[in-house]
Structures are given as structure tokens and as C-alpha cells.
Amino acid sequence: MSSKYILILYGFSFEFAANFTENLTPNGTATQSSDDDPIKGKAENAVNPPISNAYSLSYCSNTKNADGGITEAWWMFEFSFGKAFITDIKIYYRENYAIRMSGFQLYVTNTSTIPPDGYLCYEDHNSPQPPFPNTTQTIPCNQLGQYVIYYDNQGSDEISRVVLPVVELCYVAINGCPKSYWGSNCEISCAESCIEQHCYPGNGSCILGGCIDTNCLKSNCDKDTAVCTDGCTDKRTGSYCTKYNMASNSLILIHQNVDEQTSLVSDGNIKSCVTTQGSEILVQVDIKEISIVTAIYFNLNVSSALGGNHTIYVSNASSLSENITVIYSGESVPTLINITTVFRYLIYEPPTLTENSSLEICEIGIVGCPPAVYGPLCNITCPMHCRGPCDLENGNCSFGCSNGWSGDRCEKDIDCIATVNPETSVETCMPLVFKVDPSSGPVNGGTLLTVTGKFLGNDNDSISVEISGVICHNVTVTILETNLTCIIGEGNITQKKGIFVSVNSNNFSDSNTTYFSFKEPKIINVKPSKGIVSGGTTVIISGQNIDFKGHNRYNISLCDSEICIECSILPNALDATIIKCKTGQSREPRNMTRLQVVIDDLTNLTLKETFRYLPDPTFNISNEPQKSLQSGGSTFTIRGEGFNNVGDITVEKVDKPCNVPDDSLAVCETPPKLGNQTNQTVIVHFDGLTVQIPIEYVTDPTFERFQGVYEYDKESTIKIKGKNILNGARHEDYSIHVGLDGSCFITDINMQLITCYPPKSVPRTNQTDVNTVYVIVNVGNIKAYIGDLQYKEDVNTLAFVVGALAAALVTAVVIGVSAVVILRKKKKKAIKEFKMELMTREEIIRKASREGYTFI
């Protein structure tokens, strides 16, 4: 079936017919250079299912494998209907023997001559060392011929022996259409106006020239020359309209007299033209992305020029002053410029003009492909890791590869450390491991681990994993090459470092990094000890080493001798010592005598504690709605019984939980009004039980600000004016803040006025003036700034205090000085008297000594 697609790639929008060609191998005969087995391994095996690389002489072709005498081997397919246009050839070579493909050639020819003398679609670079060719390949060819030949004259050195040329093809598909046909099933005849009635199978465009109805505008073409006489259909260009026109989706700017119909310049119709006049004319075509261009077509005329050259520039910038390249300069305008270059902007500058000069532009065609596609009709996607546009013919990455990739088509991962199996000569990459998730689990094992990396294999590979010295079993590849899962076995808390991954005997080992650690969990306590039968009670489980993060790792239940009721773990409610869960429903009040926590299926922790399921609360709810401010924050009450059995009472869209003064009363805050409805229903959650409360929303109060700074004498009240002050709010709902820690005591309040006493001493403030504080009215969710309050200073009192302090200070100084003088006089007198007494005693002693007395 044929389908049409619209693609948008790199800023381009283009349309093409899907290239649904047919596998032509059911229509022809396969032969090969020799047979290795008289019965099996025949050439025709390669064109019959299964589509696989798995080798068997019953399914694969096999030429003679000998130690001498063979210099070439080939496999050939001949079409029974004659010539076919072949778009691509898909081959499945014998698995694990890529070395035998090294140096092979693939031909499309019109003769059966060996060595082949036709068109070489592909030739592998012969090398005795890896990398070797892929055993599964799709090779583009786009060639007309009657024979397809796989040819090998190289042989291979397989370490243990040298193998002469051999062909072992397990499946071959040759896609295309018989000559003169195209379409999804090759059922549509090519246009007779195509030269030799030869067209491209994907869309019927003429290959050797000629015009077809779908390419030529209005189906008009010269049957002798095959030139489209009126131009091309959308997105085509060239004399035969066989080229993709990048200008068809471009932005075109014609300086001087800018015509609104500039799109006519690239619409394909060579008879719809744009004319402009003046002395300064410049034409710029912006193809929107830097692209590879191979040819440029012009159909334009200049009149009344003074002389000079027609100049054509290309650039990656719109300005003529930046990095421009001249691709043509001459006295006449070319109709075709064949060039291979890369640019975004095409600029045409005519010769010197006069005010009466004119330029007529009928068509500009730019042959190339938008970035990310290539091929004759720009319908083949470039390799995904190309950096920039790819080669228009072969798809090679002309501007290099994205980070992490290499090779002509950027198909090689630079992280690949290649290894070759010595027995099969197959090249593979050593596995790499980046991360293991989760990073911890209980010592009993059972944790489902995800290993992330590169080259981790696929479903059919032999893979083994060992983490922290413990085997991880049930290995499953979840994302080819990059992710696998496994279940860790039993370990102990001392095992922390190391990982070993083997993929088909290619090993990754790291003994220095901790990827996963074992912990020994323990539960110690659970609270609260009660909840309602409707469930929804938040239970907090305390313990040690119980923070095992990840999905579906916990199974928590409250149990008695008959049943267990699940307690669902709360998201983001884990740490090393706490697990939070919400109780499930119970059909009746009952006592659950055991808490059971199962982690990763194999760890079963129990705690013998009683959790009581108590009856649900009952409610006394009036049908008369309670009033609330539109901004929310108003209080409303719920009356009933059994409120103390509930863990949390919360209102939807309100962060603050309700206050429960006693078992029969809950005081809650309203959420802000939603939408335009005055009467709304507020949802209140009593754990797992919900109650609907009717609320009537009324207009919020508004308040007038002070006129400037309000001077306060420390004695009077202050007055705050407003509107709707008691509309949905009560006296007790209001509080007035003064400064950082003061409040204004409300003495009177009505719908238009609040009267209150500020504190007599100045509250703390965050303003520069310590005597100035702000005033804020709080009601519900409203915090209204009223203005600044400035406390007056008592000047006389201050002077008296300062004077008294000064007098006291002077008196103290006088008394102090006098005391020092008196003390100094007394001290001098005492010293003098002591010296006189000492001299008298010395005289008595000397006299007694002379008279012979003993002095005692």
C-alpha cells in the first residue's frame, strides 16, 4: 500500500511518497560458485525464509570451503523478467563469522560475467583485523540491472587456519521494481514520456530523463527533449523536474520594490514571475538551515543595465559583509550552476542599474536536501548521530559526529572497547556499568535491581551479574544494550563494594566502587494506636535501617488472628528511622494485634502492638451555609461525636489542619473561593472519611491607609476605617499587629470602623526610626498594611530626668573628692605620730643599756 507523509525536520516541511518497494527474489534464480554439500547449502536457500543469521545448511547457502585451489567465491541472482531497478539489498550473513565477509563486493550487472563487470554498489574494506563488517546489512544501490552478485576473492585468516574465499548467506532480500514499473507493489507503469520508460520505484520520477505527469506542471512536457515546458510541480526543479527544490520552502526577499508575491519565485511555475524596478535591487533566498547544495537553477531577466557583472553569493549570514563566498560573477545570467557547497543564504546582485532598470524573476531552484535527509528525492533519513547535514548521495556524516560517536556514518560508540572472539572472530564491545538502582536492600535479598550502562546485551545473550559479591539471578534485558534487571541474593552488611557483569564472556569488573549495600532492618514502634474504620489514618513506623527507596518495595499490613488490612506506604515518606503509611478500611471495629512489614518479598518484620479500629465519627451538619471571606482563612465549625478517634482533620486546599478542642467539635479554616459561585461546598477529610460543608462566600473587607505617618500620643485610641469589616468575620477573627511584637487592643468594631489601643511603650521595629512602627490588620488570609505609627516623645520629662542625673553626678564627684582629701590628711597625721613613738622607744632602750638594766 502507498502512503503519504508530512515531515518537519530542522525547520523544513516537505512531503514525499513512502518508498514501499517489493522484494524481487521470488522472481528469479539463485546460483553460486560451488556447493560445499551435494544436497544442502544450496544457493536458493538464501532467498527463502527464515529471515535470520542463524546458520544451518538447511537454511543458508554455502560455497565450497577448501584449504586450496579456490581463489574466488560468489553468489548470483538473476531476475526472470529481465532488468529491475534495485533500490537496496539486504543480506544476512552467517552469524559469528563476520571475518569471512571482510573485503566482499556487491554488484548489480547486466551480465553474468565473473569477476563482475557491472555497477559496484558496495565494497568492504578488506582487513585481517577488526572491526569486521556487520553480518546484517542493508546496502543502498539505486541501479538498473538483471543480476545481483555477492563476490569475494579475499579469504580470511581465522587464527587456527586460513580460510579461502567462501560465501555463507542465510537470507537475501533484493528490493526494487521491474523496469518500467513503480509503486508499493510495482503495479504502476512508468510514464511513457520517461526515457526508456524508466522511473524510480518509490515515486515514478524519470531516472534517465523525460517528464511524467506527477512532475511536470500541468503535465506539459516536450516529448522529444523530455523538458517540462511550464515548470515543475511543488518542491521540484530542473529541466526535467527530477530534483528536490529547497527554495520551495524558503524565505525570499527582493530589495527595492518588494512584491507581496515573492513566493512565485520558487513555486515551480516558470511562467509566473515577479518584477521589480529601481537602481538598487538585491535578491536573497533563505533556505532556513545550513544545507548541502549541489546545483542552482536561474530563470530571470534584467533590462536597462549600465553594465557590469551579475554576481551570486552564498553565505551562512544574511549580510553581504559577513563571510560571503562568490560562486559566480559574469556578464550574463547562468541558467544552471553545478556546485557542491554548504550555505543557508543565496544572494543575487545584478549589474549596475538605473532608476528605470527592472528585474524579472520567474524561478529559482536550489538542488539539495534539508538537514537530516539524503538521496535523490531527499527521502532517506541521515544517520541519527551526524553533526550537521549528511552526504546527499551516500549518507555519510560529512561534518563529523555527535559527542560519543565515530565512523563514516557515526555508527560506532567511542566507549566501545572492542574484543574479538577467537573462535568465531566476531567483534563485540566490552560491557560498561554506570549505576545500580536502588542502592541498598535488606540482607535477606530479593531486591529487584536495575543495572544501567552500555553494551549490556540483548534478550538472547548469555548474561551473568554479581553485585557486592552476591549473585544476582533472573537477569532480564529491559532496554537493549543499556538496561537490565536482576534479583539480588542473600548477603550481609559487610558486603558493600564491587560488581561483575559478563555478557557472552565479555566481562566488566569493578571492585573499588560501592554500587549496592546490604542493611539489616528493624522495626521498634508504631503510632498512633487507633484510627477509624474508614481508614486513611497516617501511621508512623519507627525503626532502624528501613529507608529502602524505590517502587513497590514494601507490603505493610495491620493483622489480627483472622485478617490483615493493608497500610499503603506514602510517597516521599521514608528515612532511615521512619516509614509512613495510611491504613486501609475495616468492615467493623476490631483490634489488630500485629504490624507486619514485608520488604522486597523476602524480609518479613513483625511487631506485636495493638492498633484499634474505632467507629467512624458522626456529624451534626446544618443545611444553612456558614459564611467565609472570598480570600479564605475564615473559621467554621463542625459538630458531632468521635472526633478524637481521627488522626488528621484537614480541609482540601488548606495547609493548616483543623483544631479539635474536644471530641465533639472541629474548628477549621476555609479555602479561598474558586470560580464565581457564591455558594460552594468545602470538602473536609476525617482521615479516610469525607464530609461536605456548605459555605457562602462574601466580599472581603477593605481598609483605608493612614494619611502619612500617624503620630501617637501614647494615651488615645487609633481608628482604622474600612468597608465590609464584619462581612463574614467576627470581632474575635481580627488581630492588629503593631511593630514586631505589639498588638492593638480592639475596643470597638463595626462594618466601617475599628477602634483599638496600641501598646503604651514602643514595640520592637525593623525601621530606622526606633519610635516608628507599622500597623497591620489580620483577618482570615488577609494581611492589610495600614501605615506607620510614630510614638511622640515627652520633652519636659526627658529634660528633668537628664538634669537630675547631671546633678546627682556632680554631687557624687564633690563628695568623692572631699573624702579623698580627708583620708589623705588623716593618713599623714598617723604616720607622724608613729614615727614620734618609735623615736621615744629607741631613746629609752639606749638609756637602759648604759645603766645596766634589762629591758623587757
From TrEMBL:
A GO molecular-function annotation: semaphorin receptor activity
Recorded superkingdom: Eukaryota
GO biological process: motor neuron axon guidance; negative regulation of cell adhesion; positive regulation of axonogenesis; regulation of cell migration; regulation of cell shape; sensory neuron axon guidance
Keywords: Membrane, Transmembrane, Transmembrane helix
Residue ranges of domain IPT/TIG in the record: 430-519, 520-614, 616-698
Positions of transmembrane segments: 798-823
Database matches in InterPro entries: Ig-like_fold, Ig_E-set, IPT_dom, Plexin
Alphabetical list of Pfam families matching this protein: TIG
CC terms in the record's Gene Ontology section: plasma membrane; semaphorin receptor complex
Protein name: PLXND
Organism: Mytilus coruscus
